[in-house]
């Protein structure tokens, strides 16, 4: 099925141990209903988190917030990525990816570095009723933010107050925000903090133990043949029943704690990308649907993806596929060259 093969042994060992074209400078200037029925284990008590399916002892609904996080090599390791319930990874200008990290079940003390908005990230944030956090914006994103398309906090207007510049990194890789400042900004702007996002569809623990598919213990994603800094590798840790992630052979960990990002689901989709201006900004089609791969429990299934009320979801024969309870990472790659050319599988079994 996959035609291309490359060596991933070195990064496999790194992940198991666990323990270009550059961005434009413009960012410094302009820096529900129909929710699926949940499969909850009968012996579990409490309310499951809507975005992880894990049991939660919260006493009231909780608003999610979605943060644009910098993925430039000078911004790594980031803070707070390990606590995100869902992360979307997509290209911005050039061959540089950025993250939209969505938080609901956990509220990290600090998140960043925060980067500027693009319109397609805003569309995804709205699908989760999130408060959108960014520092700067493209012209298309500015139009959406100015018209109140989503509740938002923009570092352009809170630089040095809600958003803080750290001394150990240089701009534009040094803007951070704390959760206390998010709450402060939301209160100042009158945002409702008790709008819980509608839940995803999750598998029971028994169903998760029966997942089938092609063995895929290590999977790499090539975003660029010229710039390896944004290429990704996922390694399945059988002892944890989680995936670890690396960028350019560097394990993705939290800058403050050193804890690795641990994922229950990795969802990789292809969709048309089009450069729309001289600065290299893109239009990414997140509506039409298409092909994808879903990685769960060391296995990979061929699926299709659909946009359902703004969210990117896996389906087979038109039926939505349940997620393993836990955190999810969604990689969006260009349809040209497509999945087969962008993804490499290593079936070596590791523990």
Automatic annotation (TrEMBL):
Segments of this protein annotated with the region Disordered: 21-58
InterPro entries: DUF3048_C, DUF3048_N, YerB-like_sf
Species, as recorded: Cytobacillus purgationiresistens
Record-linked Pfam families: DUF3048, DUF3048_C
Signal peptide as annotated in the record: none
Protein name per its UniProtKB record: Lipoprotein YerB
PROSITE patterns, sorted: PROKAR_LIPOPROTEIN (PS51257)
Domain DUF3048: 51-191, 220-330
């Amino acid at each position: 099925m996959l035609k291309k093969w490359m060596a991933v042994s070195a990064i496999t060992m790194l992940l198991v141990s666990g323990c270009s074209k550059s961005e434009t400078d413009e960012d410094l200037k302009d820096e529900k209903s129909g929710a699926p029925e949940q499969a909850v284990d009968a012996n579990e008590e409490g309310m499951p988190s809507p975005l992880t399916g894990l049991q939660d002892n919260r006493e009231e609904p909780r608003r999610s917030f979605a943060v644009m996080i910098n993925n430039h090599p000078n911004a790594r390791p980031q803070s707070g990525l390990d606590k995100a319930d869902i992360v979307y990874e997509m290209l911005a200008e050039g061959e540089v990816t950025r993250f939209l990290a969505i938080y609901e079940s956990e509220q990290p003390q600090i998140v960043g570095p925060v980067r500027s908005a693009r319109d397609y990230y805003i569309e995804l944030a709205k699908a989760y009723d999130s408060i959108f956090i960014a520092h700067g914006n493209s012209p298309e994103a500015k139009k959406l933010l100015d018209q109140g398309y989503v509740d938002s906090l923009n570092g352009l207007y809170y630089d040095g107050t809600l958003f803080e510049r750290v001394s150990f990194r240089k701009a534009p890789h040094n803007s951070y925000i704390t959760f206390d400042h998010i709450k402060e900004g939301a209160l100042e702007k009158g945002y409702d903090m008790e709008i819980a996002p509608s839940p995803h569809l999750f598998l029971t623990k028994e169903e998760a133990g029966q997942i089938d598919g092609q063995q895929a213990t290590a999977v790499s994603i090539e975003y660029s043949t010229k710039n390896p800094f944004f290429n990704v590798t996922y390694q399945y840790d059988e002892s944890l029943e989680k995936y670890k992630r690396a960028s350019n052979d560097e394990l993705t960990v939290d800058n403050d704690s050193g804890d690795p990002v641990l994922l229950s689901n990795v969802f990789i989709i292809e969709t048309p990308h089009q450069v729309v201006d001289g600065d290299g900004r893109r239009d990414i089609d997140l509506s039409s649907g298409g092909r994808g791969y879903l990685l769960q429990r060391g296995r990979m299934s061929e699926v299709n993806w659909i946009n359902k009320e703004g969210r990117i979801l896996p389906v087979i024969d038109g039926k939505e596929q349940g997620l393993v309870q836990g955190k999810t990472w969604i990689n969006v790659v260009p349809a040209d060259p497509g999945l087969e050319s962008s993804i490499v599988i290593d079936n070596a079994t590791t523990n």
